[in-house]
Amino acid sequence: MRNLLIFITKYSAFFLFLIFEGIALFIFINYNNFQRASFINTSNEVTGNLYRNINNVNDYLKLKEINDSLAHQNALLRNQLMSSLYVDTAGRKKINDTVYKQQYTYIEARVINNSVNKRMNYITINKGSLNGIAKGMGVIADGGVVGIVMQASPHFSVIRSLLHKDTRISAMLANSKEGGSFMWAEDMDPHKGLLYDVANSAQPHLGDTVVTDQHSLFPIGIPLGRVSNLKPKTGGFFLNMEVKLSVDFSKLEYVYVINNKFAQEQQGLEALQKTDE
Known about the structure:
- The chain crosses the membrane at residues 12-31.
- This protein is of the alpha+beta class.
- 32% of the residues lie in helices and 36% in strands.
- It has five helices and 14 strands.
């Protein structure tokens, strides 16, 4: 308290000047119409800019909530796509009776850890087994295929990225339906993949879209990328094609985990077949 009094006493002339200056400005503005109008306009402009900046900050802080909401809405829309349905057609009295059943559902999740510069890259998301995620499920983003779930704890899951030396996806050219296998490019370019062992009869062109086929764990037609270079394989019977990836893995924020509701039934039947061999 003593230091405060000393400070006020030392600078009393300055504080007295500010008080008189404030009184003078008040009288000058209050009793002159033009100055009063100018002051009001200026103060309104300053206040408006201040509120606008505050509003911009609030909008920025709400981006995460907005993005989460959009991702959830996208997942709901994906659940309604025809590619998520299983067509069960039965012929009765020469009438094709078609019933659509839900085969794929989508679980939205946010990426919380990701790598793109290693030979074995993994992605961690903020959803796990409590949300219905299990090992072996496919993962996509808005652009296309992202990877495959390898581990799931109650609240988190680890995905083996498409940018991983062991990731293989059954794929095809969207136009010709000629199939092959898709893997990450050997030069570790995070923007490039390789579609290999495609028959020469495919006659692919630069820019052709590469998508998942009926043999993959993904729904048919999920993009992988576009053909960016054609490479004949030794022997001349097959082609290897460089593919520019449709997903920019360095910018991944939200993904969708695919739950194939018929996966266990299919795996169980295939396991029985193997035991009979």
